[in-house]
Specification:
binds magnesium ion, six-stranded mixed β-sheet, alpha/beta, 41% helix, binds adenosine-5'-diphosphate
């Protein structure tokens, strides 16, 4: 495949206004102002900004869970419908990992059911036993191994990190090319965050996925992304190659965010931790 033929997910001039009502008065909240970017398969863009800056609203629009006030979302250069078969096909390519691993799985269903359902929906040609086999393969891919040990459990029997791995497997189940990961580790224990991010990075390389990594953590944004976009009150105020944005920030808000990061030393420490983990230590 030539570079030009790589799958792309493009946001073009996305705008989202919310109408707020208090009593008889209404006002408009401009949650997302005019956001454009192109995510290519095999690349990671980090969308960074403090709470309330519009990150999840962008994620929800990309997933077609929220309709943009204006602007377009193009998959491989084409706008697709928001209903029925077209939406289903769109979602077989674009999937999301939500922030809260406790809310995103159904407590009444087994782990394997969460994977079998999208497999059946998007691959109706598979037999029942093939579906089960694929679901078990997905569990192994997210390092929930041996898969049989996890398959028939329910979400409450798993830790937050294990649940987030199930959520990642579920996102891969339809054969997704793009993953929108909305603060995928911010609710997890600090000690297991890197493991989950490394897993996402491995899967991305293996499947040539495009990842939109939403976070307020600049250190991991730098290490796990090719490009960083800094969002401030719904506006992208700075964007560029990850190292450049972190080492040579231009916008005052980016500088403030960097200043608020716990400790610049952490960047080095994180790098060492990632290296150790990659080395399998
Ligand atoms: P982030 O994910 O960066 O924390 P959000 O995208 O969740 O930010 O929210 C951006 C802004 O839009 C916030 O001010 C939030 O209160 C507001 N907002 C989000 N969803 C809604 C909604 N459904 N109705 C009204 N306001 C909303
Ligand atoms: Mg959010």
């Amino acid at each position: 495949m030539t570079d030009q033929a790589k799958p792309t997910l493009e946001a073009r001039h996305l705008v989202k206004d919310f109408t707020l009502r208090s009593g008889l008065k209404t006002s408009k909240l401009h949650a997302v102002k005019d956001v454009s970017f192109t995510l290519e398969a095999g690349r990671t863009i980090a969308l960074v900004g403090e709470s309330g800056s519009g990150k999840s609203t962008i994620a929800r629009m990309l997933m077609k869970l929220e309709k943009p006030t204006s602007g377009e979302i193009l998959l491989n250069g084409r706008a697709s419908g928001n209903h029925g078969g077209e939406l289903e096909r769109y979602r077989s390519d674009v999937q999301m990992v939500f922030q809260d691993p406790f809310a995103s799985l159904n407590p009444f269903h087994t782990i394997v059911h969460h994977l079998e359902r999208p497999l059946r929906l998007h691959h109706p040609e598979l037999s029942g036993s093939q579906v089960r086999e694929r679901a078990l393969e997905l569990l192994e891919r997210v390092r929930l191994s041996p898969a049989e040990h996890f398959a028939d459990r329910r979400p409450h029997e798993l830790s937050g990190g294990q649940r987030q791995r199930v959520a990642i497997a579920r996102a891969l189940a339809p054969g997704a090319r793009f993953i929108v990961a909305d603060e995928p580790v911010s609710m997890l224990d600090v000690s297991i965050r890197l493991g989950v991010l490394n897993l996402l990075a491995d899967l991305q390389r293996e499947d040539d996925l495009g990842v939109l990594y939403i976070t307020h953590d600049l250190a991991t944004a730098r290490h796990f992304s090719d490009e960083i976009m800094v969002l401030y009150h719904g506006d992208v105020v700075e964007r560029g190659p990850a190292d450049k944005v972190i080492l040579d920030p231009q916008h005052d808000y980016t500088k403030t965010l960097l200043g608020a990061a716990p400790d610049p030393e952490n960047l080095g420490r994180l790098r060492d931790e990632v290296r150790r983990e990659l080395a399998g230590a």
